[in-house]
Write a structure and sequence with these properties.
This protein is an all-alpha fold and 59 residues long. The termini are far apart. It has 3 helices and no strands.
């Protein structure tokens, strides 16, 4: 799911809940929920990656 979202972003396209539902054979509402969770997951992963180069400060 997150991979589909990342691929769509790279291609400059917007992935819809309805499209996710069709691909996974779910209801449209469930497809939207899955899409929302994937977007939140990708955002979290990207935030962690952007901070990965920082070392913890010890006092």
């Amino acid at each position: 799911m997150a991979r589909w979202l990342a691929e769509a972003e790279k291609a400059g396209k917007k992935l819809s809940g309805a499209e996710v539902a069709r691909r996974l054979e779910l209801s449209a509402r469930t497809g939207q929920r899955r899409l929302d969770k994937a977007a939140a997951y990708l955002q979290e992963v990207r935030q962690k990656q952007s901070r990965a180069h920082l070392r913890p400060v010890r006092g």
